[in-house]
Design a protein that fits this description.
Layout: H1 2-13, H2 16-19, H3 49-62, H4 67-77, H5 89-108
Helix pairs in contact: 1-4
């Protein structure tokens, strides 16, 4: 959950993320995946070979110097598919849900 708060806070520090849905953004030039096969980050299915691809993609993300910016970009721009910032679709949905719940709880106090 800490990653979400960091990432959403980083959204303020990465203003180009909100407006850049298809354009290349500066942090991508430093991404560990910049020369990797993009198919690795968009596996088909969730079993068999896809499990291996997901693990490989997440391992690459774990060593990436721009992982927080990538995750922020995915959250801010609503990326629904693929591995972004080391998180798959379901993990990012969970991050967004927890973030919304924490904001609701904070505003109720």
């Amino acid at each position: 959950m800490t990653s979400l708060f960091i990432s959403l806070s980083l959204a303020r520090a990465v203003p180009e993320a909100a407006g850049a849905r298809r354009e290349r953004v500066p942090w991508q030039e430093s991404a560990a995946c910049r020369h990797a096969d993009t198919g690795l980050f968009f596996p088909v299915g969730s079993g068999g070979q896809a499990v291996t691809e997901i693990q490989q993609a997440k391992a690459l993300c774990a060593s990436c110097p721009v992982q927080p910016s990538c995750l922020t970009y995915a959250l801010v721009t609503g990326q629904e598919f693929g591995i972004w910032g080391g998180y798959d679709e379901n993990e990012r949905r969970l991050l967004r849900t927890r973030w919304r719940q924490s904001r609701t709880a904070a505003s109720a106090d």
